[in-house]
Amino acid sequence: MSKIPFGPTYDEMAHPSHIDPQIRKKALLGKANELDPINLFNINWRDEENQVHKIVLPREMTGVEANIVVLLGKYFPSGSHKVGPAYSTLIEGCVDQTIIPGKHTILGPSTGNFGIGVSYICNLMKYDSIVIMPDNMSKERYERIKKYGAKLDLTPGTESDVILTLERTFELKKDPKNRSLAQFELLPNYRFHRHVTGTACIDAVQGIGNGRIACFTSAPGSAGTLAAGDQIKQVFPDAKVVALEPYECSTLMNGGRGQHRIEGIGDKMCTLIHNVLNTDFICLIKDEESVQGLKIIHDGTDILVEAGVKRETALAMKELFGVSGICNIIGAIKMAKYLKLGPNENVVTIATDGFDRYDSVLEDLSRRYLETENFVLRRWFRDDFLQTSTDFIADYRPWSQKLKLFEQKEKDWLKFGYSQEYLDSMKEMKFWDDEYQKIYHYDELIKKMREE
Mind listing the pLDDT tens digit for each residue in 96-115? Predict the structure, then answer.
């Protein structure tokens, strides 16, 4: 592996068929040992045939005519697509020579999946790492981070208290040996998702319905995934991009800052890398519906079969989604209804990870309910999927609405040293396009250093 320590370019992550065939073959074989550094070349949305990992949800489950196409993040190394922005942020620092092996410790502020990605990438690229995250997340996340060798620095609270992790990271950054892969504010996260995830979304709908994307839904944690919408709009200008928030923590819609159970999203802020210019709607999803939905998919196979879903499909879905993935699916169903999309139209969304880190979430659900028998699951399936409402959807296309988001961004980020001038520059699409164009610069640097 010493000859290829720097991993893939942005182009190779978007199109793994562009990887040197011998390296691609080694990477695919390397999946058997996830700690083999060759797995850096498996950071992409594609299978061995270069097809996007996805599922088109059965209409018997969604209750809508439109096709709901879900990209599956569980097939990424470490089990989540968050490994992509973790790698992109680290590799840009490497080629810029602001992150030096043996000299710097990597900081990963997170509520879970990004922290797992940071710990995994640092294991492969031989950096020490510290993951800063709230102390009340699912235990599977802590276990995975420690398995990959990172140290944990826990701050009080849950998903909605992520601002404390940012404040802690801000303090740790004062030590010159520490370098932060700050997913909420550094643009490699945006670049990865706009180029790699956006390209995968566009390719995923080919041969499905009219082959176009009518709507893209994603719940912002860092808001990195929403950047895929910028790429989608380049190809399908009429596509609607929808940010999903927990009903209990509706910061973008109305400043809400409550606690909630959808790990990975709803972090009480408008993140710095959120391009609000391309956010068309904001839709609120109740956290309990997302957790109940996970229970239905994982343990309610018979309920789905009763509704007309093929048993083979129902069984195949059991391990594909986490809580935020269910949130994204419910949001996709809501928007298909709201936009009155027909059978030839496609809504695309993302499952960040799979079920493997959520056993404890369903254990908690069982503790909170007296019964979760099939008759209960049957009611949840009807209410949360088939008959989900179009309540709590707001149109954010008017400039007056976008100004609210810019004001929220100023409130969140001026205190961390960003200037008003810098924040104002984000009000023009030129800012985002210029940042995106840097992928070509970094691809050349990565290839050059890989050859040395």
Answer: 999 988 899 999 888 778 88
